[in-house]
Automatic annotation (TrEMBL), chains A, B:
Residues 1-26 are annotated as: Disordered. Residues 1-20 have a biased composition (Polar residues). Pfam families: Ykof. It comes from Leucobacter luti. This is YKOF-related protein. SUPFAM superfamilies: MTH1187/YkoF-like. Gene3D superfamilies: 3.30.70.930. Residues 37-115, 141-224 form the Thiamin/hydroxymethyl pyrimidine-binding YkoF putative domain. Coiled coil: none annotated. It comes from the Bacteria.
């Protein structure tokens, strides 16, 4: 289920302007929390019994090692990349087990901890991570995926290069089902879809400090509103 | 209901590296479609009668002048900024009239037309637009909002400057209710919330070619899952 970081990444590396760690290079010793690694997601269940379905799925998922904060709009999940994705996989697969149609709007972010401001010292090195590995769920998911490397200035920066490289990686994993306006369409096991988006984000994160990715995942969609 | 582009924008202008139109400057003559102005959104209704509620809301909204494409994951809306936002306001307010709890995951994008690749010539000037004006709906909305100016290289680029400026504009409009990890919390009439996010995106779009913004809007949330 791993989406490998392939050599297409090397093409992007040459165009990035933020790989020089500069005078400050403590990133390798930062915890995921200090580096601002985490997710914010809204799980929407198209069923009048949604409260029970959502609360049951959240309660059944393993929260070990994670910071979880749920409010009226979304749920924040902070922690190491593998644990954050494990949790998303468990919650969404758990809710999907109800049979209800659901969608999950997921934001993954790294390199910009804090709330209003990025509370990192200037010049901190970009901090990558090992790709996540997620066990198959048996749940088919379709998703629209967007990846945002948030470059600052630099002589040769090109924000689209890392995006194209990540899409090529996803294509190699067989999960890309096309591209619509503003998003790449993924289709596969929920675990593959989540791992593809996460590993694109992690891979670009080795080159660019502040990287976010957004994913809208649809599960159990009825034919009535399917194209 | 207009969120004005205030002088805080001027502070960001000084830090941006993409204002020089360079040798290619046809942007002022581009149509919104040519420039890739549009939205992609997923409307989730937490009710077993969701198909009727969503289809009724889509059918009742004025589609004049817009390109609308609905598939199994989300709906694309292409057209001028004012018309795109009018449509989002009508669809969400219409569905909210059912009384059902709903959330809308909205992506607005500009400056990167096409599907997989940005089909603009290199060096095209950033293309702003007039702020949108949306009539009040009487529907209270709470949202998490993120804004992404996708800078390329440049000597003095700073992607956070335009974000902070847009948040200051929103604060001046009285719709900012705080900041959570990775997102600014907005709370107000649905029209104010949508206009705030859209006008932040439009304002930064005058400085940076490729700008996206993501907004997760929650309406009719029950107290059971409110913080």
């Amino acid at each position: 289920m791993v989406v490998p970081v392939t050599t297409t990444r090397d093409a992007a590396r040459g165009t990035d302007s933020q790989t020089d760690p500069g005078p400050v290079a403590p990133a390798a010793r930062m915890t995921p929390s200090q580096y601002g690694v985490g997710a914010r997601f809204t799980l929407s269940v198209y069923d009048s019994d949604y409260v029970r379905i959502i609360l049951d799925a959240l309660a059944a998922a393993d929260q070990a090692g994670l910071t979880i904060e749920t409010n009226d709009i979304s749920t924040f999940v902070g922690g190491p990349e593998q644990r954050v994705l494990d949790f998303l996989r468990e919650v969404i697969a758990g809710a999907a087990g109800s049979g209800a149609h659901l969608s999950a709007a997921i934001l993954l972010s790294r390199g910009c901890p804090g709330e209003l401001a990025c509370e990192l010292p200037a010049g901190v090195a970009a901090l990558g991570a090992a790709p996540v590995e997620l066990a198959a769920t048996g749940v088919r998911a379709r998703a629209h995926w967007s990846l945002y490397p948030l470059l600052d200035g630099g002589a040769t920066g090109d924000h689209m290069g890392p995006i194209y490289a990540a899409i090529e990686d996803a294509r190699a994993a067989g999960v890309v089902a096309g591209s619509d306006h503003f998003a790449t369409r993924l289709d596969g096991d929920l675990a593959t879809v989540l791992a593809t988006a996460a590993n694109g984000w992690i891979g670009v994160g080795a080159l660019v400090q502040h990287v976010t990715t957004h994913l809208t995942v649809s599960v159990n969609s009825p034919s009535e509103i399917t194209e």
